[in-house]
Amino acid sequence: MNKKNLLWGLLVALAVAAFLSPFASPSPDGLERVAEDKGFLHLAEGKELIHALMPDYVFPGVASGGLATSLAGLVGTLLVFAAMYLLVRLVIRPKGSAGKGPSGKGHLN
Amino acid sequence: MHIPDGFLDTRIWVGAGVLSAGAVAAAVAKTRKVLEDRQVPALGVMAAFIFAAQMVNFPVAGGTSGHLLGGALAAILLGPWSAGLILTTVLIIQMLFFYDGGLTALGANVLNMAVIAPWVAYGTCRLVSNLFRSSAGRTAAIFLASWMSVMAAALAASLEIAFSGTVPLKIVLPAMLGWHALIGIGEGLITVVVVSFVSRLWGLEQPEQKSVAGGEGL
User: Fold this and answer.
1) Where in the cell is it found (chain B) (predicted)?
2) Which is it for the CA torsion A108, A109, B2, B5, positive or negative?
């Protein structure tokens, strides 16, 4: 558990969002498939209560579908990282690491 | 498995919202006691990774896809309380910016994927890795925990949708569990690979002693 590994972890997340998401299967997921098959998918149509910036993970104003997905993935991944970081810092306000052992390993558990 | 607006009636989404608000409040109170300052980036990285991985749908069968849910991954590596906060954050961002999951359904989605999935995974992993104390047993425990977490979330989603009067339970439940039994295999494989990779990175020879079998988690 050190800073270098965490940075690598974030880079892996960004790489997955940028390079793998365009190759995601376009097929409906489990719930969507069930809603289609059992005839209740229409209940969700036009029921959106908020106007999302990037619906269906498509970055607005980008012609290429793959690139639009990659960009939405990158923005979303950074947004989630920042939101999680800030929420924990501001809401949980964790205490400092004083009083625990000197090793950097394993404390996360 | 993100429920959109329109599938749940008011009674159900309000009820699920109250339950998940209570669960998130408990997770906040619990992590306040145990979380350390320097652990914060790890929660951010886990949330970022789960968000990214959730975008990568893999085909399962017959024109249906699935994606990592991540509740088991977060619970096994960081404990069920932190996992709840992580998945809740992911779900809120997905709902606000990507319209993946509805606003009224947020409570139900948090309940299914941020509360039920991590706790079922955590409980299953502890139970099975205590029964079979070997490296293979540990792998089996992680796989089974991941599969169970997806099935439990699918069961909860089915109940919420059925009790909303959207579709009869006897129709929605077998269909949901059938597809998610397949999707859960993908969840299990990805979680086993990522957990073993991260455990090795952390240099913990027997991570279960600290993260799952031995402790309260975060």
Assistant:
1) Cell membrane
2) negative
